[in-house]
Amino acid sequence: MLPWLGSTVAAAPLALRTLAYTSSWVAHSLIVQMLVWGVLTVYNRNGLSKKNTREPALPVSRMLLADVFGYYSWMIGAGLVQAWYNPTMDSWGFEFPFTKLLWYQLPIIMAYDTWFFFVHRYAHINKWLFRHVHAMHHRNDAYLNVTSNSFEHPIDGLMVVGIPVGFVALLGCHIGNFWTLFVPMHTIACIFVFGHSGYDLALDEWHHVALLAINPMLLIQLVTANAAVPMDHEDHHTNPRVNFSLFFTFWDDLFDCSHPKRAPFTFLLWFVSLFFFVPLSLYYEWIWFGPASFFAALVLHIFTPLPNAVYKLLGGVVSRTVSRLPIWDWMRRDLLLTYAEPGQPGAFDADPSRRYIFCYQPMGVQARGAYYTFAGKGRRSPVSKLHDVKLAAGRVLWGTPIVQQLLALYDCCDTSYATLSALLTDKELS
Ligand SMILES: [Zn+2]
Ligand SMILES: [Zn+2]
């Protein structure tokens, strides 16, 4: 943003001011777009990335038009808030207090990613909304090209990005810092362009290094090992049932719609991350005082996966201990489950050469075997001798933070169709 623009525009009516500020953000985004385009061209020339087969059928002029009305419509959010709350640039500082700004960025990108996931997913679930609004973005001939980078309905742009960006702008106006808005705006623009570039990016890891230069707070993505990469969004266009989020994969992981599937521990890492950073940023102002305290906190954070490793190492011991807890006996009695020793009447007659998946549904026990397995592991359960027994947990239970991790430690899996069919058809296991 150009500081000298402020006083000139401030005298104009709100609509004109909004137009001016929105246009200046559009110009910003165009610069990012051109830079990314240049980088991709260089990489493509050197054979480091490959262009996907789908070529846009629309002429470049039409795509640029769609850019102006669709993709750039989300910048109205920033333009409007800025025109309303900060018509001159006088109260908007240009200094870049790195550590302090970093703490603002985390809640911003976390909240923004959450908003994006749910609104975007709803735009797919709600048939009316999809047909009249979001389908435009999914038109096969219109995406995956740097010139078209997003091609969306203006309402889509406002819903998915305009509103959250407006809130970020509001925050920026209140704390009087230009970079609060600048950093997320450019990060989002950069991700959108990469995500719709149509390139299969062998440089996905490098892409993060480049993004870190714009928004160092994306370090959290690398630390929690759940960064969404441009190919994830490309996958969303190939299969609109997967990868709804933008920065992270944790919401997709949680709702079982990420592709490719990630290890469940990434969610735990995210969870730990959130509970590590947020209280610190809200209550412990000392962390902002200097780079030393910030980097100390960061190093501590990097080591938070350690408890998870300890869990894994102790997995066998922990699971044996928990299996022997009397609570399982109480539960069997409470739920009127019967338990018969192998060979006794009513005992489960399992064939050791076959594989079993015992399902537990949180709304009611549908398979007694599940409890047999769970309670009987290491206690001469009728299924303890089977060479591969999986306890499948219901979705609600599986999706619950921490519980999911504990279940995974017990070799449980989720009851999704994909997981169960993958297990049943896995040749190596059978
Ligand atoms: Zn898209
Ligand atoms: Zn979509």
UniProtKB/TrEMBL annotation:
This is Fatty acid hydroxylase domain-containing protein. Pfam families: FA_hydroxylase. One of its GO terms (biological process) is lipid biosynthetic process. Keywords: Membrane, Transmembrane, Transmembrane helix. It comes from Monoraphidium neglectum. It is found in: Membrane. Its main location: membrane. The chain crosses the membrane at residues 25-43, 64-85, 101-119, 167-194, 206-229, 267-286, 292-314. InterPro entries: Fatty_acid_hydroxylase, Sterol_Desaturase_Related. Residues 108-255 form the Fatty acid hydroxylase domain. One of its GO terms (molecular function) is oxidoreductase activity. Belongs to the sterol desaturase family. GO terms for cellular component: membrane. Signal peptide: none annotated.
